[in-house]
Here is the input.
Amino acid sequence: MKEVLVFSLGGSLIVPGNVNYEYLHKFKKFILKLTKNYKVVIVTGGGKTARKYIEPLIKEKVNEYLISLVGIMSTKLNARLVSGILNLKYDIPDNLKEVKKLLDKNNVVVCGALGVQPNMTSDGDAAQISEYLTNVDGLYDKDPRKYKDAKFIHEVNFNDFIKISNQIKYKAGQHFILDQAAAQIINRAKIKTLIINGKKLENVTRFLNNDDYRGTLIS
Here is the structure.
């Protein structure tokens, strides 16, 4: 069986405001090129779509479980969109068993969140399957969108990354480089993980070819 690459595709890349067709078309060509040598699993996040639906529920002080359900459905809607762009004709899987079953027969599988799991976003689901990418260049010591002096981290070990992720309190629809559950799974399974800017897909190719790339490696 071909080596499997797992991408966590941020919802903010799929629907930054309106559906980003130009990016999705580019992403499709990139994925189809990869399938010559790899099998690919794409886990879609909910992004702004999820946050727009979650916001009024938070204002109404709805319990976290119901808020999570809304977020999960947003990831599945985005999964349907990406699956359609890739012209995949099979159903969106709802659990790990279904992901594996589809991957045995196909080169590409797209899914959203795999059910309600405590303190987990779609990044955690991707970590359960394996490896990921998102929409910043990599990991910084603080949010580079807020702090001009934020320092880029090119490589970090599993334990140090857990310490960083644990500083962020979990909430449904959170927007962080990787959630706490993902960090724990990556550490437990010792999954080599690459964080890159999803708009700069060439960095994935450079990494796979052992060339210089812009991103953060967790190992």
Summary: The longest strand covers residues 3-9. The radius of gyration is 16 Å.
